[in-house]
Automatic annotation (TrEMBL):
Gene Ontology BP annotations: 'de novo' GDP-L-fucose biosynthetic process
Enzyme Commission numbers on file: 1.1.1.271
Natural source organism: Ostreococcus lucimarinus (strain CCE9901)
InterPro entries xref list: Epimerase_deHydtase (IPR001509), GDP_fucose/colitose_synth (IPR028614), NAD(P)-bd_dom_sf (IPR036291)
Record family assignment: Belongs to the NAD(P)-dependent epimerase/dehydratase family. Fucose synthase subfamily.
Sequence ranges assigned to domain NAD-dependent epimerase/dehydratase in this UniProt record: 6-239
GO molecular function, one term: GDP-L-fucose synthase activity
Alphabetical list of SUPFAM superfamilies matching this protein: NAD(P)-binding Rossmann-fold domains
Protein name in the entry: GDP-L-fucose synthase
Enzyme class: oxidoreductase
Pathway this chain belongs to: Nucleotide-sugar biosynthesis; GDP-L-fucose biosynthesis via de novo pathway; GDP-L-fucose from GDP-alpha-D-mannose: step 2/2
Keywords: Isomerase, NADP, Oxidoreductase
Length: 319
């Protein structure tokens, strides 16, 4: 059997690091895995992207590299979220096509779905109306990946597809206090509040609802997608609707994992963003009825333990 050479862009990020950890445990025989980061290439630049593909000559690509961020970063940098993601994706698609890459798996997010829609959301609803205003730059750029998959298949017969995870969390995340997603943002702020003996302030009302997938679970599902999933149409990778949780309950889980005993309050002057984006995982369950997700509090405890063990190590935690 010919060996697969799998190139993972964004290989040192939240999901890339989790895939690296899973593959290190598996040590697959007929697969060589390459985890590329921004040190390898500027994916916004066609020549730099082409040089990286020339160096690694991948047969398969998992494209994770993207400009990502939480609600507040999305609201602040809409133009960059649009321009950088559009540029990176165009260069990756063109290189994969030009070099006859056998499979490309891109990563979207449930925030790309229409804001005003019926719930639960499923894969057929991507283009049924505008996304939430807070992340339109990112959402429209990522919606184009779904369009690009179909176009490259129709015109060139390419086997390009995409996964649509819900909010992701885990080790190696971006813990920047302002630009991060809610879980890493709360872990970092909670940790500092505990050290200083200050109240732990949660942004917004705490009422919005989210589904969270642990990076290690997503990593296992993305490896399965690369090996087994044969559709061009995307697939939602998410816990079930029954596991949807409020931001206030997320904050309680963070406080418990940090062993924070102080006062917890809410700053309602801060935006709540989208109230909910409930997704159904029926398509995933059709393929993998027995897939086991890591219990939320267990995944939270591992993430907080990793954060606290690495916080003081220079360069170990993005913050
Ligand atoms: O993860 P998050 O920033 O993004 O979560 P979205 C935002 C929710 O958490 C809002 C509340 O309801 C915030 O009010 N929140 C409370 C906080 N404390 C904090 C905090 O310290 N930091 C942050 N960031 N939020 C993103 C999209 O939407 O979802 C992205 O903008 C991407 O494009 C991502 O798709 C997965 O879930 O609202």
């Amino acid at each position: 059997m010919t060996k697969k050479v799998v190139l993972v862009t964004g290989g040192s990020g939240l999901v890339g690091s989790a895939i690296r950890e899973v593959i290190a445990g598996e040590r697959p025989e007929n697969e060589e895995w390459i985890f590329a980061s921004s040190k390898d290439a500027d994916l916004c630049d066609p020549a730099s992207t082409a040089a990286m593909f020339e160096k690694y000559k991948p047969t398969h690509v998992i494209h994770l590299a993207a400009q990502v961020g939480g609600l507040f970063a999305n609201m602040k940098y809409k133009v960059e979220f649009w321009r950088n993601n559009i540029a990176m994706n165009d260069n990756i698609f063109q290189e994969c096509h030009k070099r006859g890459v056998e499979k490309l798996v891109s990563c979207l997010s449930t925030c790309i779905f229409p804001d005003k829609t019926t719930f639960p959301i499923d894969e057929t609803m991507i283009h049924d109306g505008p996304p939430h205003f807070s992340n339109e730059g990112y959402a429209y750029a990522k919606r184009m990946v779904d369009v690009q998959n179909r176009m490259y298949k129709a015109q060139h017969g390419c086997n390009f597809t995409a996964v649509i995870p819900t909010n992701i969390f885990g080790k190696h995340d971006n813990f920047h206090l302002d630009n991060s997603h809610v879980i890493p943002g709360l872990i970092h702020r909670g940790y500092l509040c505990k050290q200083k003996g200050e109240p732990f302030t949660i942004w917004g009302s705490g009422t919005p609802l989210r589904q969270f997938i642990y990076s290690n679970d997503l990593a296992r599902l993305m490896i399965w997608t690369m090996r087994e999933y044969q559709e061009a149409d995307p697939i939602i990778l998410s816990v079930g609707e029954e596991d949807e949780i409020s931001i206030a309950d997320v904050a309680r889980s963070v406080a418990k994992a940090l062993d924070f005993q102080g006062e917890v309050n809410f700053d309602t002057t801060k935006a709540d963003g989208q109230f909910k984006k409930t997704a159904n995982n029926a398509k995933l369950r059709k393929y993998l009825p027995d897939f086991k997700f890591t219990p939320f509090d267990e995944a939270m405890a591992s993430t907080v333990k990793w954060f606290m063990e690495n916080y003081e190590t220079p360069g170990a935690v993005r913050k």
